[in-house]
Amino acid sequence: MSFGQGGPQWGPGGSPTPDWAALAEASEKRARRRKWLLLGGGALATVGVATAVAVAVVSANGDDAAASNKPASELPSSPDIPGASSAPEPSFEATTPPPPPDPKDYISDADKDKAPLSAAILFPGTKLTSGDKVYKKGATADTKRCASVTQPVLGRILTKNKCTKLMRVTYARRGVAVTVGVAVFDTEAQAAKVKKQADKGLVTSLPGKGVATFCRTAVCRGTYNAYGRYAYFTTTGFLSGKDVTQKDRKAYEVGDDLARFAFHQINRRGEAQASAAANNPE
Which whole-number Å values give the CA distances from 86 to 61, 62, 71, 91, 126, in the listed order? Predict the structure, then answer.
């Protein structure tokens, strides 16, 4: 008995016999499925190999393929890294600007002290203000015959040390007058010798321009000093004609004020020339 194509077939004794055609078809399907699985596994393996090659290429760019797995503290220092520059950093020689000119250099040597010079230039204006004190300016005068406007002892000292010019200016305040004398030499050494030797003798007082004659017959106070190639003096006396004594502190203060002023004016002359030299270097 049969139930149609594809159904079970019964053999002798009533037991069914296998459907060999169906079994063969099922076996063929399984074989085809196994083939595709093997092909798919092969493709995966190929991807795995490509990945391994890529990792190997990347690692080959370093000195050590295992370096990428090391902590930062174990990595090579910068000079050991390929491509890092081991050349020294560029260096630049330090430059130091020259020191500014010393103002005293310009008033210590005639070869440098070239600015115009006269009593009117060294002592400009019509008055001098010192703190709360105001001194009226009197006459000014210049001469190359230094000894002609000094007492004899001082005149001989100036001549011996080759004084080239003597400038005078007078200031007055409250009955006291002071003549400042500035003697000029070629060198600082000559002026220094005059300072050591000028312990006697005065510069002749200079009246005029509102200041009466003083210190011609009375006792007057004198000072002397030197700075650079200049020796400077003061002759201080009363316009009333009385003598100056050690008790006359007023006369001493006025004389000291004008001596300091003379020093500052000489120093300013040096500063002006030094500043000009700094702004216009050769």
Answer: 20, 18, 24, 15, 73
**What's residue 125's pLDDT?**
95
Nearest residue to 227 via CA among 190, 272, 282: 190
The residues, any chain, with a CB within 8 Å of residue 274's CB and separated by 6 or more, are 100, 101, 102, 103, 105, 106
| Cα 157 → chain centroid | 46
Q: Which residues are registered as beta bridge partners of 137?
A: 171
CA atoms within a 13 Å half-sphere pointing along the CA-CB vector of 240: 8
Sequence letter at residue 252: Y
Q: Give the per-residue pLDDT at 65.
A: 43
CA 27, chain centre distance (Å): 100
Instruction: Quick: pLDDT tens for 21-39.
Output: 665 566 666 666 555 554 5
CA 25 to CA 209: how far, in whole Å?
Answer: 148
Is residue 139 within 8 Å of 155, Cβ to Cβ? Answer: no
Instruction: Report H helices in the chain.
Output: 20-60, 119-122, 152-160, 188-197, 249-279
What distance in Å separates the CA atoms of residue 240 and residue 192, rounded to the nearest whole number?
35
Q: Are 187 and 117 spatial neighbours (Cβ–Cβ below 8 Å)?
A: no
Arithmetic mean of pLDDT, 109-123: 96
Of 133, 125, 136, the C-alpha closest to 256 is 133
Structure tokens belonging to residue 266: 């000489």
Q: Are 76 and 84 in contact (CB under 8 A)?
A: no
Helix, strand or coil, per DSSP, at residue 68:
helix
CB 222 within 8 A of CB 236: yes
Is residue 255 within 8 Å of residue 223, measured between CB atoms? yes
What the block records as the tokens of 114 is 């070239």
DSSP 241: -
**pTM, two decimal places:** 0.65
